[in-house]
Amino acid sequence: MLRVAQALDTQLRAAMQRAFPEATAAAGTPLDPQLAPASKPEFGDFQANGALPLAKPLGQPPRQIAQAIVEQLAADPAFGELCLEPVIAGPGFINLTLRPECLCAEVAARLGDARLGVPSVSAAAPVVVDFSSPNIAKEMHVGHLRSTIIGDCLARVLEFRGHDVLRLNHVGDWGTQFGMLITHLKQVAPEALQTADAVDLGDLVTFYRQAKARFDEDEAFQSTSREEVVKLQGGDPLSLKAWGLLCEQSRREFQRIYDRLDIRLSERGESFYNPYLQGVVDDLKARGLLVLDDGAGCVFLEGVSGKDGKPLPLIVQKSDGGFNYATTDLAAIRYRLALPPAGDGAGRLIYVTDAGQAAHFAGVFQVARRAGWVTGAARIEHVPFGLVQGEDGKKLKTRAGDTVRLKDLLDEAVERAESDLRRRLVEEDRSEEEAFIAHVATTVGMAAVKYADLSTNRVTNYQFSFDRMLALSGNTAPYLLYAVVRIAGIARKGGDLGGGATGAPERVEAQALSFSEPQEWALIRELLKLDAVIAEVEEELLPNRLCSYLFELSQVFNRFYDQVPVLKADEPARSSRLALCRLSADTLKLGLGLLGIPTLERM
Ligand code: ARG
User: How far is the CA of 382 from the centre of ligand 1 (A)?
Assistant: First the structure.
C-alpha cells in the first residue's frame, strides 16, 4: 500500500502545517508525521507518531498536538475518502484505519494488474550484482551455493522493480593457481593442456590439490610455477591455450549447477580486468595514495588498525610486481562505475560473498572512494552471509568427513523429496505417473534448498538440514508450495478464479467486492503489503523479509480458507472470496518467483 501511504503522508504533512504554521516555518521544512504501518492490527492500518517529538518545541502535551492534527485532517475531504475517523492513543499516537471501500479499491486494482501493485522504477543506471563467483579448477562449494542463491534472488527483485541488472560471475580465473596447475599437468597429464575434455573437474580438483602440495614443499616446482604465471600473464599462446581449456572444463561443470537451479549469470572473471591492473596502481600513485612498504605497493587504510595499533595496509602490488585479489576488485569497481564505452556506468554495485570477506571489501571500497572513483550517488555494498553448518553446528561435511559436493547435495534434496512424495501418495491412496513424480520431486527439492537458505537472515550462520527444509509444515518451501496447490484445487473443484487460460489479469470492479468477515479483512491487509515488502528487499537486500512475508501470507490464507466458506458461500461473497483466493495465489507465485522458486498446480 505504498501509494496509499504516500497519499496519507502528504495529507498529514499538510494538516500539520495548517495546525502549526509557525513551527513549520521555524523548522524550514514540513513537519514529519512519522507515518508507519500499525504495530498491531487492532490499531488499524497506520500510525502517525509525529506529535510526540513536537511536545518540547511547542510546549504542549502531545495528545493535544495530536488532537490539533486530527482536527485539520477532518477538514480534508481527500483524507475522509481514505480513512475512518482517526483515534488518538497512548501518549499521542494517531491511529489510522482505512475505509473498507479504500481497501476494496486496492484489491480491485491489484486483480487487474500483472505487477500486483508493485510500481516499476525508471532508473537509468544499471545495477551490478556480483555473485556466485567460484574459482576455476577448484570445486564450487556450499559458500558459492549460498552466494548463487542469494545473489540470484536479489537480481530477480531488482529486475522486477525495473532495474537493468548485470548479473556478473566474477570467477577466479587468473593468478598463481594456474602456474602450479599447468606445471603439474605438464608432467602428469599433458593431454589436459592440449585437448578439451581430457580430464573432468573432479580430476582437475585432485590435480590442483597435488600441485598445491608440491608447491608448498618443492622449491624448484615453486619457481617453475612462478615462471608459468609470468608466461600466462604475458600472453604466451601455449599457456593461454592450456588456461582456456582448464577454464572451459570448470565452466561446463559450474553450468550444470546453474542449469539445475535455473540461474542466469554472465561470466566476467578476474582475467577480464588484467589489462586494467597497472592503471589502478598508477592512478593510486598519481593521487598520492600509494606507499611502498617492504617493496609492496600499499594504501594504508583509515580507521582500520592492526594489533600493534598501526593502520593496516591494503596491498595492491606484491613485492615481485604481481597484482592480487584486491587490485582486481579495484579495477572492477572502476570499470563498473565508469561510463560506457569505457565501463558499465552502473549506479549500484552489490557483492554477495561470505562474511569472511567483509574486511577485504571494506578496504577496497575505502580505497576506491579515496581515489575518487566512486562519484555522485553511486552505491557500493557488500552483502555478507554466514557459514553453512551441518546439523552438529560444525562446518558442513559428508559422513566420511569430506567437503560436500554441490551436485551430491542437490541430488540428495531431490531424492529425499521423491521418497517423501512416494510415501504421501501411498498414504493418500493416490497413483501418479512417473513423469509427475519426477517433476514434483525436482521442483520441491530445488525449492527446499533455495528457500532454506533465503529464509534465514543471511548474516547469521545457517544450519543445513534436509529434514527441516523438506518438512510440509513450518516456514519451508513445501508449506508455501502447498498453499498455492490448495488454491489451484479450489479452481479444480469448480471455483472460477478468473484470469482464464492465458493467466492474464482480469479486471474486477471494486463495487462488486463485498467482504464481511475478519478473516477476509486480515487476508486483504496481508495481500496489500506486497509492494512495501518488495521495496524493502530492494533497499536492504534481505531476502528473508520476503520469505517471512510469504509465510505469513500463507498462514493468513490458510486461516481464511479453513474458517470461511468459499465455494459454498452465496453471492456476492462467493465471487469476492474467490477473488481473494486468486490474488493470494498470484501474490504467492510472484513472491516465490522472485526467490527463484517455480510453483506447482498439484503436488
Ligand atoms: N572467487 C571468490 C571466492 O571464491 C569470490 C569473488 C567475489 N567477487 C569479487 N568481486 N571479489 O571467494
Answer: 11
